[in-house]
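Fold this: ROK family protein
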Amino acid sequence: MTAETASSPIPSRPGPAANDQTREKAGGGACRPDSGGQAGLISLGIDIGGTKIEGVALDRDRRVLATCRLPSRQGSQAVHDDTVTVARRLMSLAEVGDRRDGITLGLGIPGRIDSLRGTVDDAVNLGIGHMDLGPSVSRTLGIPVQVENDVNIAALGAACQSHSSLVGSGERGRGGDDATLPQDMGEMPQTRSLPPEKERVVVFINLGTGLAAGIIRNGSIEHGASGAVGEIGHIPADFHDFPCKCGQTGCLETVASGSAVEAMWPGVPHPLPDMIDKARQGDAHAKESLAVIGHGIAMAVQIVALTVDPSLIILGGGMTKTGQPLLDLVDAELDKSARASHFIASLDLPARIRLAPPDLPIGAIGAALAGRKAGRLQV
């Protein structure tokens, strides 16, 4: 894994030569340091996904000291062991030695999370029914551990990025028969000043296999009463009434997620870019499918805008690898609503939307920042 680079406040330090890269025995993952040892606070963050476990070590100033990645494995014991392996490797690369004071660990994982107890339920992609993840890893490593939902830690990691590291919308043409189609990919992003990090509200919309949102208010994750805050994918708001895995019909996730794109455009390795390309070429089915997807994502944006009213809406997840064409698609749909409603137009939603940095491990970074809560340290 190569060293990650980002704009402040997550700068990366110069790393060693490529032949210093170390391969982990457990699954062939890659780990590497990005600097020498660092005195003071070390924040470890690990993002546990269905295909990979990715970790970072940050210093007190949020600079990346080391990175590590392993393929993920199924089952509670394997997740525990691999998490411990990544954490120990990060501590070795950051040269913390035998000391454990001032070291915190944050973990992000899919499923239903009790962040107070550090437990995980129904992480189906990892084969976990119930697991006391935080307490077990904390006992093994001897450091405080904070466990959060994977979308929440991605939201925290994205929200801490500087304004210049997020991809914004370009000026687009208005109106016309192809108003729902993305325009020129090379247009320059707009800029928009934002409140200081501690004074802003940020919503991160994860456009992955499913659809969910994470809310960051004044630098902290919002959880709600049951941890279900941000589960916007299961709002039955779409008139197509497609069946949803949750048991309802018409859920937003059925028209605004990677699985929705794959269902409408099957048999293609990268369905959304292909759908966009075919729509540009005049394919009627592609245009119709793209309109459904664009409308669904725009609806998700409007829902978070009208319920949370954030200063910034960051789109992340696998679908956003499409880049600027996705932003243009969503903006065109929002423009339609704005033309029909002065109220919606007054919210200026396209100006609030950004794409998460595509090559930055925002999940692991967010986990590291969340982990400081376990040690009663200020993010």
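Residues 167-355 form a domain with the Nucleotidyltransferase; domain 5 fold (CATH 3.30.420.40). The first strand starts at residue 22 and ends at 23.
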